[in-house]
Design brief:
- This protein has about 150 residues and is mainly β.
- The protein has one domain: Sandwich (Immunoglobulin-like).
- The chain is built from one helix and eleven strands.
- Bound molecules: copper (II) ion.
- The site of copper (II) ion (CU) has 6 residues, from β9.
C-alpha cells in the first residue's frame, strides 16, 4: 500500500496541480514548426468547488503573450476566436484540445521542442493562480492542425 500511495503521489506531482477549488491536469503543448512564433497549449480544468469561477488570463515565460482561444468551424476552415474569459461552473470540467478551446502562445521567443517543459500560470476571477508544467509533444500530436489566422 505504501508503494501504491507513493506512486500515486508521484503521478499527481507530474500531471495534476490542485489549487483550493481547481484541478488542472494533462497540460501539453504542440512543438512549434520551424521558426513559428505561435504555439498552442491544452489542458483539462476542473472546478471542484461549489461556486462558479472563470479563467481570465494566462502567462508563460516562453511567450510574449498568452491568449485564450476557441476554434470555430467556418465552412471548410477552422478559425480561431479570442475569448476574454472561460466560465467554470461548479463541478464543471473544461477540456482544452486541438480544434477546440486552446491556450494560444503568442510571440514565442524560442522554438518549443518536443520533450521540453515550461510553466504556465492560469489566473482565475476568484483570485486563484495555478501554475502547471506543460509538456511539449510532437508537432502533430493529437488531432488535426488548426488553421491559425493571426
Ligand atoms: Cu488560437
Amino acid at each position: 500500500m505504501k508503494i501504491v500511495a507513493l506512486l500515486l503521489a508521484l503521478l499527481c506531482a507530474t500531471s495534476t496541480v490542485q489549487a483550493a477549488d481547481l484541478t488542472v491536469r494533462d497540460a501539453w503543448a504542440r512543438a512549434t514548426a520551424g521558426q513559428s512564433k505561435i504555439g498552442s497549449a491544452y489542458l483539462t480544468l476542473k472546478n471542484t468547488g461549489a461556486t462558479a469561477d472563470r479563467l481570465v488570463s494566462a502567462t508563460a515565460p516562453v511567450a510574449g503573450a498568452v491568449e485564450l482561444h476557441t476554434s470555430i468551424q467556418d465552412g471548410d476552415v477552422m478559425r480561431m476566436q479570442k475569448l476574454d474569459t472561460i466560465d467554470l461552473a461548479p463541478d464543471a470540467t473544461v477540456e482544452f484540445k486541438p480544434s477546440g478551446l486552446h491556450i494560444m502562445l503568442v510571440d514565442v521567443a524560442a522554438p518549443l521542442k518536443q520533450g521540453a517543459r515550461f510553466p504556465l500560470t492560469l489566473t482565475f476571477a476568484s483570485g486563484q493562480n495555478v501554475t502547471v508544467e506543460v509538456a511539449v509533444m510532437g508537432p502533430g500530436a493529437s488531432g488535426p492542425t488548426v488553421t491559425h489566422q493571426h
